[in-house]
Amino acid sequence: MADSVNGSNGGEPSPDDRINAVKDAALAALAVADSADALQEWRNQYIGRSGEVTLLLRSVGSLPAEQRAGFGQAANRLKNELEGSFDTRQAEVTAASGPAGAIDVSLPGRKPSGGRLHPITQTVREITAAFGAMGFQTVEGPEVELDRYNFNAMNIPDDHPARDMFDTFWLDRVDEEGARSILLRTHTSPMQARVMEAQDPPIRVVVPGRCYRYEATDASHEWHFNQVEVMAVDEGITFADLKGTLFEFARRVFGPERKVRFRCDFFPFVEPGVDMAVDCFNCEGDPACRICRGSRWLEILGAGMVHPDVLRRAGYDPERYSGFAAGMGVERVAMLKHGIDDIRHFYANDMRFLSQF
Ligand code: DAH
Description:
Elements: H1 15-32, H2 36-46, H3 52-58, H4 65-96, H5 119-132, E1 137-138, E2 144-146, H6 147-150, E3 182-184, H7 190-198, E4 203-212, E5 224-235, H8 239-254, E6 260-265, E7 270-279, E8 297-306, H9 308-313, E9 321-329, H10 330-338, H11 351-354
Helix pairs in contact: 1-4, 2-4, 3-4, 5-8, 5-10
The structure holds 3,4-dihydroxyphenylalanine.
């Protein structure tokens, strides 16, 4: 067979050319390997067990005898040289990515979660702000209360059946007559008497505060909860003042479109007594409405004209002074506003719930 016209090597690269080609390609690829993964890949491709340099070394046997020694030495030199270059490059890449365990500055930051007020605190502030805008001052009173204020001053004497409405936590303490006299207040109403004792009319106060009742908990009852008490006492206060003030409160807290409904109700410390409802802000009388369940009305508070006996007990002349009072459950207001169906969510301290507000 005739030799190729191109020369005696027939177009086959010379052994030196093969070594140089591998060397040039390997060094060029190494210079751009810039991560641990890229370096590993480079190592497999060139100096690993089936890498290109290893293949060069294995091909020694197929060369003419006189070339074998020279080629073998050159390929071994290349292998050593590339191993050295690999170590150098690996050191560079590691140094550029920082010491082990250092912060990866390319990672997106984590957003710090800001603190916020508890939904009940927010609701208390909304309620007191609505009354504050109408000239009511916010005051607070004791959670550990005397029987005398919690009941007697509120026109609920010892044998009054209304005491059954309030399942009471009593403190383990008796007075001279052997009667239990200290309790965890069951409502904020005792502050009506305390405020009247402490200041002269005109009085306009709102009293937010924690209350306690010895009750089993369920979706609408907690053994501790918050109320806001409202009271205005002055000469010439009428039921029209009660209606106007509570209507304005409802509009401020539940929306300017709200209507209110008053119905007769009984509370020993007011006469007449009423409960107030606002029209449901969630529906158009849809029987499936999850807030009002189709009734259209949401009862939000009890109210009435301060009973003459309550005024008298506090040292006020009921012939001269009159007043109105109201009391509402803060959790109920918050549940209605936000469409929450279980009061226990407020005190379970579950961030998935709390961080919605
Ligand atoms: N204290 C009552 C309760 O806890 C609520 C209440 C009703 C307060 C009527 C009032 C009122 O001031 O006038 O059930």
